[in-house]
Amino acid sequence: MELDLSFNSGNETKVWIFDLDDTLHNASAHIFPVMNRAMTQYIMSTLDLDEAAAHKIRQHYWRIYGATLKGLMRHHGTDPHHFLLETHRLMDLPEMVIQVKRLRHMLQSLSGRKLVFTNAPRSYALRVLEIMGIADCFELVFSVESTKFHAKPSVRGFQMLLKTIKVKASNCVMLEDNLPALMTAKRLGMKTIWITKQLHKPNFVDYRLSNVLALTHIKL
Questions:
Q1: Which residue of 4, 49, 91, 189 is surrounded by the most CB atoms within 10 Å?
Q2: Could you tell me if 17 and 172 are in contact, meaning their C-beta atoms sit under 8 angstroms apart?
Q3: Quick check: pTM over 0.90?
Q4: What confidence tens digit (pLDDT) does each residue in 151-181 have?
């Protein structure tokens, strides 16, 4: 299939916006299970809940807001910096990151501006990108701190990103594994690429790819 990512904005440069976890690398295998346990433990400690209740509230906020932290801030006054520090320590991160062969080559062969837009804290995102050897492929890492904790899929976070990079949404291509984030991107006028093994594609997704490397098999 040929991927037509033509734009209606003349010769303006394409901007490739990559999510990090489960888009550029597989975080579900080793990282997310540890991180989720850390978040549940944090909620148990700070809200004085048992494990079952803490697990339930973590998942509830993730479903409602797209980020557990947003629910904790809104309903419990959680300090976001303390939460991120405590839940993203991941001392064994180099052993937890699954390397993606040819990813650096694919990124370097992609014409246009490239940046990372993640709900993760900046320190964690930079560690992952350095471990993968691709940190220098991106002009910007726009983290949850960059959005002032208006994490994806919040429109405000996207608007802050667009203002920072000084481009129109119509010049951007968003690659992401999370559908609510892609829905926001599409509403703003971005092209959307869903990184997933699922076959069904909702109408706000322009293209579905099984993994990010599939971009190399497409004529752009």
A1: 49
A2: yes
A3: yes
A4: 999 999 999 999 999 999 999 999 999 999 9
